[in-house]
Amino acid sequence: MTKIRLGILGATGMGGRDAVIHQQKLQEQGDNYADLKLVTGSPSSEGKKLGEVFKEKEENLAEKHNSLKPQKCPEKYRDKIVEGLDADKIADKVDYVISALPSSVAAEIEPELRERGVHVFSNASEFRWGEEVPLMIPEVNPEDIEMLDEQGTEGKHVNNPNCTTAGYVPVIEALRQRFGVESVDLVTMQAISGKGDKIASEDYTSKITGNAIDDWNPESNHNGEEIKSEIEPQKILKHAKNKEQAKNTSLKIDAQTTRIPTQYGHLESLRIEFSEQVNIEDVKDALKSWRPSDEVMNLPSTPEKPIKVLDRQPEPAKDVFTEDGMSVVVGDIRQLEDNRISLYSLSHNLRRGATWTARQSMELYLKNRELI
Predict the structure, then answer these.
(1) H or E stretch covering 267
(2) 80-120 pLDDT, tens per residue?
(3) Cβ neighbours of residue 333 under 8 Å, at least 6 residues apart?
(4) Which of 26, 116, 224, 241 is 20 to 30 Å from 250 at the Cα level?
(5) Residues facing residue 328 across a β-bridge
(6) CA angle at 249 for the pair 243 and 255, rounded to the nearest 5°
(7) Are 36 and 8 in contact (CB under 8 A)?
(8) Alpha-carbon distance 357 to 334, whole Å?
(9) pTM for this structure?
(10) How many CB atoms lie within 10 A of CB 300?
(11) What values do phi and psi take at 119, rounded to 5?
């Protein structure tokens, strides 16, 4: 079978670097359906070798944060030259892209690529609420890939959600398939890698060391992570098609978010209210036994256990790389009332929460067209 021609946009950023690592891991496990033909980066990285930029950024992070372990660029891609964001040149080299671009940059280049026939699988937030753009967690809403048939451009566009959303919505989906879920109170303790390479700045380092902080906006009495965590699940779970609908649905979600000085892993505390009486053993069984469709389970990037249940609280240092960071790890499940429980979920914010899920959505698209 002919391999697809793949590009990674924003390959020098934190999410993009992990997308390059993902490409290598897939090839090592024998899922060699894509040739990485192109990587792009910021103007400061353009023209440099990917391995050089990789090393510089990873070492800079480790220097500023002693607890962070630098990642290495796969040897196969170290000499690949970082290119700029020229839509014509990209479309000449690739047919598919994983986009790890900042939203402001994605807003311009991603539509240009679609018009040129390039299929875009994006982690950027810019188009998540597009009427014809599926907001995908493949295990949860695989049927939404059919929305691509309604898109008017030759190139198709799929988005994955915010990293906090990606970390707990599989848990809600597993539970609501057996029980009626009415409300979720969410509190997050998010890894600093979710902020990208800006965490290497002296200003951010001084603020986060020994601390817990967020991007709280005094004018809205909220921060952006909280809003995304409350409304994005509504689209994924079919409660809303637009932002206005998402603010007033039958599933009530309230979120408070913050960051803690861990490298990877968003630890999320959930208090879930059901429309019926539940017990802990049934909740555990629902989580342990939940499986998405066979079509999704057979994708190269889908973990064998989408949700893993522990008898303790999940810990980023111990558990974040469960199934290469694609499992959501759940633990410390407690009964609060007859119809209320609490639990912790942990997910890898750059993998389950970013470019690895974008890649998984691409695989679902390819699978539906018998290209893998």
Answers:
(1) strand 266-274
(2) 999 999 999 999 999 999 999 999 999 999 999 999 999 99
(3) 280, 283, 284, 309, 341, 342, 343
(4) 224
(5) 307
(6) 75
(7) yes
(8) 29
(9) 0.95
(10) 19
(11) -85, 125
- Strand, helix or coil for residue 179: coil
Q: How far apart are CA 3 and CA 34, in angstroms?
A: 5
Q: Left if phi > 0, otherwise alpha if psi is -120 to 50, otherwise beta: which for 117?
A: left
User: Which residue is associated with the tokens 């000085």?
Assistant: 261
- The answer to whether the CB of 351 falls within 8 A of the CB of 359 is no
User: Which tokens hold the place of 315?
Assistant: 């810990």
Percent helix, percent strand, percent coil in the chain, to nearest 5: 40, 20, 40
Tokens, residue 37: 């033909």
Distance separating alpha carbons of residues 19 and 161, to the nearest angstrom = 16
Half-sphere exposure of 5 (CA within 13 A, CB side): 10
Cα–Cα distance measured from residue 71 to residue 223, given in angstroms and rounded to the nearest whole number: 30
Q: Distance between CA atoms of 208 and 266, rounded to whole angstroms?
A: 15
The DSSP output letter for 86 is: -
Ordered structural domains, the chain, with CATH: 4-160+354-368 (3.40.50.720), 163-347 (3.30.360.10)
Q: Using an 8 Å Cβ cutoff, are 300 and 359 in contact?
A: no
Mean per-residue pLDDT of the chain:
95
DSSP 8-state symbol, 263: S
pLDDT on residue 352: 97
